[in-house]
Design goal:
Order of helices and strands: HHEEHEHHHHHEHHHHHHHEEEEHHHEEEE
Number of helices: 18
Number of domains: 1
Shape: globular
Structural class: alpha+beta
Number of strands: 12
Length: 447
């Protein structure tokens, strides 16, 4: 008979709370400790929820590949009030149909049209920066990437009231989720969640705004070439059907949340690391000056900016924008020769794997050069997966990488960002990995 995963060694825990308190106090430290001290499968109890952490890349690949056997975890399903049945939260045939509809929109040729928007909005932001001033760069990156995603989806910017309503709803939602995680709320029954009036009101306002924009677009018949127009025109290649207003709303909410949060966090990590490693910043600047000179960056420059690309890859290794992914087993199954019960939560942590000394020499050190010679292709699948993997790999991966490179190239050529001494840099693990207290930097114009 196949041995049960809960026969394997794991962290000692209280019989009722399990490791819930330890995980809630310090998710990153707890997962790292489990990943270093135990085996390829680490059994964990989070309250009454049976769970396990996978640290074997083959097992991680297996779980991410089998989308029907391992579905999104209950923690993510709790976001359905915000995201509905969007790509991030839907399952089964509903997910497959939506993926078919949306995939062509993220074809490489379409994504490149947004490169000019990314650079233009970044240069617009830089005009408000001044030599010698102090800024919270995380807030700046959040606003910039949200502005870009709003322009890309709706062809409007954050100066518009509609965009401000949506931005407010996203901010309230992230704060709500962070608060609930800190209360260990992410692993109790979501049906018993208390009402949060500000959260409910923010989502109602966001829904009103999105539906109004959809209706205005349908009435006018205009097609400015933004993502909303593409979503409205998309037809299922199998039955020719199009998205309902509800489906459009769900995908738009998903694109807004996923489309700015992860990129802004990635870039915030980049500025922290470049300040701490000036030799990397000098090498980055040398490449940018050689390739770009005084002109703005554009999509055609990417093949000539390999070091810039490596800086982004390495920043996502050290500060992965999503620190862990979780799936729930839909039935009794097997992983690595061990039986996994139905309902078990399977955890796969980018934070743990990206910093694992088995795969990365000096994992705590910022070394963009490590990505030379196709390191990413030579690593086992399941070691480096900032955008997930398998059939549910992030559909916006190419958009996010393009944006990160173009924004980095545009900003780094104009300003040097130095961390303000004594300001604490603390990674906060919630839906995404973000700085708990922001990141204060001093600006210095590049000569």
């Amino acid at each position: 008979m196949m041995p049960d995963i809960f026969e394997l060694p794991g962290p000692k825990s209280n019989s009722v709370e399990g490791s819930l308190l330890d995980f809630g106090r310090d998710p990153l430290g707890f997962l790292t400790k489990c990943g270093r001290e135990y085996g390829d499968i680490v059994p964990i109890y989070l309250g009454l929820t049976p769970a396990c952490l996978l640290t074997n890349p083959e097992y991680i690949e297996q779980v991410l590949k089998e989308r029907n056997l391992f579905i999104k975890s209950r923690g993510l399903r709790a976001l359905k009030h915000l995201l509905g049945e969007g790509l991030l939260s839907s399952e089964g045939d509903s997910w497959l149909r939506q993926r078919r509809l949306i995939q062509p929109i993220f074809h490489q040729k379409r994504i490149t049209t947004y490169g000019n928007i990314m650079v233009a909005y970044t240069e617009q932001m830089l005009k408000t920066w001044h030599d010698g001033e102090t800024r919270d760069i995380h807030q700046d990156m959040m606003r910039l990437t949200l502005n870009i995603v709003m322009k890309s989806i709706f062809n409007c910017d954050l100066s518009d009231q509609a965009a401000q309503d949506v931005a407010h709803a996203l901010d309230v939602t992230m704060n709500w989720f962070d608060k609930k995680r800190q209360e260990n709320f992410a692993f109790v029954e979501w049906l018993h969640k208390p009402k949060d009036i500000s959260y409910e009101n923010a989502i109602q306002q966001m829904n009103k705004t999105i539906y109004q924009m959809i209706n205005e677009r349908r009435t006018s018949g205009e097609n400015p070439g933004d993502l909303l127009s593409m979503l409205m025109e998309a037809r299922d290649e199998v039955d020719g059907s199009q998205m309902s207003d509800r489906q459009l709303r769900d995908e738009i909410a998903t694109l807004m949340l996923a489309g700015h949060e992860t990129t802004s966090n990635t870039l915030t990590g980049v500025w922290v690391l470049l300040s701490r490693y000036p030799e990397v910043r000098h090498q980055l600047l040398a490449e940018l000056q050689q390739v770009l000179g005084e002109r703005p960056a554009n999509i055609t420059d990417l093949p000539q900016l390999p070091y810039t690309d490596m800086v982004i890859k390495e920043a996502m290794r050290i500060y992965p924008p999503v620190f862990t992914m979780a799936r729930e087993a839909t039935q009794d199954c097997e992983i690595g020769g061990y039986q996994v019960p139905a309902g078990c939560m399977i955890m796969m942590s980018q934070w743990v794997m990206h910093r694992h000394p088995r795969y990365f020499a000096e994992p705590e050190v910022f070394q963009p050069e490590r990505w030379r010679d196709d390191l990413e292709k030579n690593l086992p699948r399941g070691v480096y997966f900032p955008f997930g993997d398998g059939p549910r790999v992030c559909i916006g991966k190419s958009f996010a990488l393009l944006e990160a490179i173009l924004l980095l190239a545009t900003i780094a050529r104009k300003f040097e960002l130095t961390l303000v001494p004594e300001h604490p840099i603390v990674a906060q693990a919630a839906i995404t990995l973000r700085p708990a207290y922001g990141v204060k930097v001093m600006l210095k114009k590049v000569d």
